[in-house]
Specification:
alpha+beta, Beta-Lactamase, Hypothetical protein af1432, rod-shaped
Length: about 550
C-alpha cells in the first residue's frame, strides 16, 4: 500500500464512523438516515479506492474495485439531494410518489453502465496505482450533468431555505452546508477536470477525499448548532442544562440521577457530590421521599407546592416544588422529574406588601375606634379569636389570611354612622338599630373596589348573617353564607358579649359561650361553635 491507499483507508474509517454514529443515535430520524446514506456512499467510494490506487494489484482487480466504487460516486449526489429536501422541510415534495424514482433511477443507470464497461473504457497503470480512462461517449457527459445538476438543486434548496427561514440556528446550519458544498465542488472541478484536462497525473483522482470538506461542514453544523435532533435524550440534556429553574432527575428509588446548572448554583453542591444521593438532601421534611415516590407510582402530579430548599450551607430557600413521574415503555415508573423554582424575591415582596397592608388595616381599624372609643380593641380581639378558630378547623393558610384581614376591619362600615348612636348609653330605638345594621352594607361599599385577593368585602357584608336567615342585611341562610363570615360571626358575638358596651356591662365569657352553645345549628355554624367551645374549655384560649 502507498500513501494514497492509506489516505483512502483513513477517509473510509472517518465516513464509516460518522454513519454508524448517526444511526446509533437515532435510526428513526429521516434526516439522520439520509445523511448516513450520503456518508455510506462516500465510505464505499473510499474503500474501493484503497485497492484501485494500489499498483501491486492486477488490472482485473482494479476494474472490479473501480466498479464497486461507482456505487458510491454514482449515488452520492442523489443522496445529497434527498438530504437537502429533508433538511429544507419540503414535506409535500417528499410525499409525492414520483420523487424517489426521479432521484434514484439515474444513479442506478450509471452504475449499470459502469459495470458494463461503457463509462470507463481503459485502465492505465500509474506510479500510484490504476487510473480509469473515461469514455468519450455521451454517457460521460450525462453523468457530469446529473452530478452537477442534482448538487446544484440541493444547493439552491439550502440557499433559498437560509434566505426564508426566520430561525437563526437554521440560517447558520444552511450557511455552513452551502459553503462546504461549494468548496467541495470547486476542489472537485480543479482535481477532476482541470488537472485531467492538462494531462497532469502526478496524483490520482481524489473525489472521495475532496468530499471530506462536505462531510466536515455537515458535522460542524451538527456539533455546533445541533443540526440533527439526534435523540429525545439529546433534547432532554439541552433542556436540563439551559432551563432557568432548578431541575432534578431522580431514579425510581428517589435518588438523584442528574441535575442542571441552576440546581448546582442554588444548592452550592458540585455535581459529583449529588449523584446517587437521596432527594432528601434538599428537602428534609418527614417522610418526604416516601411520600414523593408514593405519589409518583400512583401517577399523581405535584404542582407548585411550597417547600424550603436546603442548601449545602444549611440555609433554607423558599421554593415552589413540582414533580411528575417518567414512565418506561412497559408503563412502569422509570424515574421522577422535579422542578424547583426559587421564590425568595416573591416572598420578600409579599412580606413587604403584607407589612404595608397591615399598616393600612391598622390605620383603618383605629379610625373606627376614634369614632367608637367604647369598642376600642374589639376588631383586634375578634381577629385573634377568628384566626385561632380557622386554624382549629384546619383551614388552609390563604383562607386564614383572608379571615385575618376581614376580621380586622369587619366593622369599618361604622365610620358612616353618627357617633352619638355608636356611644349611646341607653337602648337604641328601632330607627337607630336600623342605622346600626346598615354598617355591614356600608363596609361592603367601602371595600368592594379594593383588590385584596380574598373576598374581604363579601365577608364583611355577611358577618351578621345567621344560619336561619334572621341576620342582616340580606337574610342569607345556611350554605349561602361564606364560612369565613360564619367564623367571624361567632368570634364577634363571643367578644362583644364578654366585653363592656355603653348600654350594658360586660356579660362575661361564660354567658357568651352559653349563647353560641344554645343557638348552635340555629344561628351559628355547629362546627365553628364546637371549635370555639373547645378553644376556651379545653385549650385555655384567652383574649389578649
Amino acid at each position: 500500500m502507498n500513501i494514497f491507499s492509506f489516505l483512502h483507508f483513513f477517509v473510509f474509517l472517518f465516513y464509516s464512523c460518522l454513519l454508524i454514529f448517526l444511526l446509533w443515535k437515532d435510526p428513526k430520524s429521516l434526516l439522520n438516515r439520509a445523511c448516513a446514506a450520503f456518508f455510506a456512499c462516500l465510505a464505499l467510494w473510499s474503500f474501493a479506492y484503497i485497492f484501485v490506487h494500489n499498483f501491486n494489484i492486477s488490472k482485473d482487480t482494479a476494474i472490479l474495485f473501480d466498479n464497486i466504487s461507482s456505487i458510491g460516486w454514482a449515488n452520492f449526489a442523489s443522496f445529497f439531494l434527498w438530504f437537502s429536501l429533508i433538511f429544507t422541510e419540503k414535506k409535500k415534495i417528499l410525499k409525492t410518489k414520483i420523487i424517489y424514482p426521479l432521484i434514484f433511477i439515474l444513479p442506478l443507470l450509471f452504475i449499470y453502465t459502469q459495470w458494463a464497461g461503457l463509462l470507463t473504457t481503459n485502465y492505465i497503470k500509474r506510479p500510484w496505482g490504476w487510473e480509469a480512462a473515461w469514455s468519450s461517449s455521451i454517457l460521460w457527459y450525462s453523468y457530469f450533468i446529473y452530478y452537477l445538476s442534482f448538487t446544484a438543486i440541493g444547493l439552491y434548496l439550502i440557499l433559498n431555505f437560509r434566505r426564508k427561514t426566520k430561525e437563526p440556528i437554521k440560517k447558520k446550519q444552511a450557511g455552513i452546508i452551502f459553503v462546504a458544498t461549494l468548496i467541495t465542488l470547486l476542489l472537485g472541478f480543479f482535481t477532476e477536470v482541470i488537472l485531467s484536462g492538462l494531462n497532469i497525473y502526478t496524483i490520482p483522482l481524489m473525489g472521495d477525499v475532496n468530499t471530506l470538506c462536505w462531510a466536515f461542514g455537515i458535522v460542524f453544523a451538527m456539533a455546533k448548532y445541533k443540526l440533527m435532533v439526534i435523540t429525545p435524550a439529546a433534547a432532554a440534556d439541552n433542556i436540563v442544562s439551559t432551563i432557568a429553574d432548578s431541575l432534578i432527575l431522580l431514579d425510581r428509588e428517589g435518588n438523584i440521577a442528574t441535575v442542571n446548572k441552576a440546581t448546582l448554583d442554588l444548592s452550592g453542591y458540585g455535581k459529583d457530590e449529588l449523584k446517587g444521593k437521596s432527594v432528601e438532601i434538599f428537602f428534609r421534611g418527614k417522610d418526604f421521599k416516601s411520600i414523593l415516590l408514593d405519589r409518583a407510582i400512583k401517577g399523581k402530579v405535584i404542582r407548585n407546592y411550597e417547600l424550603n430548599f436546603k442548601t449545602k450551607s444549611k440555609s433554607n430557600i423558599p421554593t415552589l416544588f413540582s414533580s411528575s413521574a417518567m414512565m418506561d415503555e412497559a408503563g412502569g415508573m422509570a424515574g421522577i422529574v422535579c422542578i424547583v423554582k426559587d421564590i425568595t424575591e416573591r416572598k420578600q415582596a409579599e412580606e413587604k406588601l403584607k407589612k404595608t397592608m397591615d399598616a393600612t388595616l391598622g390605620t383603618m381599624s383605629k379610625i373606627i375606634e376614634v369614632k367608637d372609643p367604647y369598642t376600642s380593641g374589639h376588631q383586634q380581639r375578634v381577629c385573634q379569636l377568628a384566626v385561632t378558630l380557622a386554624r382549629e378547623l384546619g383551614l388552609p393558610e390563604d383562607k386564614i389570611e383572608g379571615i385575618r384581614i376581614a376580621s380586622l376591619i369587619h366593622d369599618i362600615g361604622k365610620i358612616g354612622l353618627p357617633a352619638e348612636i355608636l356611644s349611646k348609653p341607653t337602648k337604641l330605638t328601632d330607627i337607630e338599630f336600623s342605622l346600626i345594621k346598615s354598617h355591614s352594607q356600608i363596609g361592603y361599599d367601602v371595600l368592594k373596589s379594593i383588590d385584596f385577593s380574598y373576598p374581604i368585602a363579601q365577608i364583611v357584608l355577611q358577618h351578621h348573617e345567621r344560619l336561619n336567615g334572621s341576620g342582616y342585611p340580606n337574610h342569607l341562610k345556611g350554605d349561602k353564607i361564606l364560612l369565613e363570615a360564619k367564623i367571624i360571626e361567632v368570634a364577634d358575638v363571643v367578644e362583644a358579649m364578654s366585653s363592656f358596651r355603653p348600654y350594658r356591662p360586660a356579660l362575661g365569657i361564660d354567658k357568651a359561650l352559653e349563647e353560641i352553645s344554645q343557638n348552635k345549628d340555629i344561628l351559628y355554624d355547629p362546627e365553628v361553635v364546637d371549635a370555639c367551645l373547645k378553644l376556651f374549655k379545653e385549650k385555655g384560649f384567652k383574649f389578649e
